[in-house]
Design a protein that fits this description.
Blueprint (H helix, E strand, L loop, with lengths): L6 H46 L21
Length: 73
């Protein structure tokens, strides 16, 4: 994502962020972004693990004991 930005563009973005958030709130904003990224990565990892644990079945085949889901109740 940041691979296409040059050094001067990154510097300008950092200056804009500093002006928007201010020097006092910048560490707080960084913590919030870091926490959000950690939670997102954890949720993504959990989703990948649950998908990998699903049994491999043939397409369109339902288990014999499975009841069809009702779309409208």
């Amino acid at each position: 994502m940041l691979g296409n930005l040059s050094g001067s563009e990154i510097l300008i973005l950092m200056l804009i962020v500093l002006l928007v958030f201010g020097a006092n709130r910048l560490p707080e904003a960084g913590k919030a972004v870091g926490k959000g990224l950690r939670e997102f990565k954890r949720a993504l990892s959990d989703a990948e693990n649950s998908i990998q644990q699903l049994p491999a079945s043939r397409e369109g085949e339902q288990p014999r004991d499975a009841k069809p889901k009702r779309l409208v109740e």
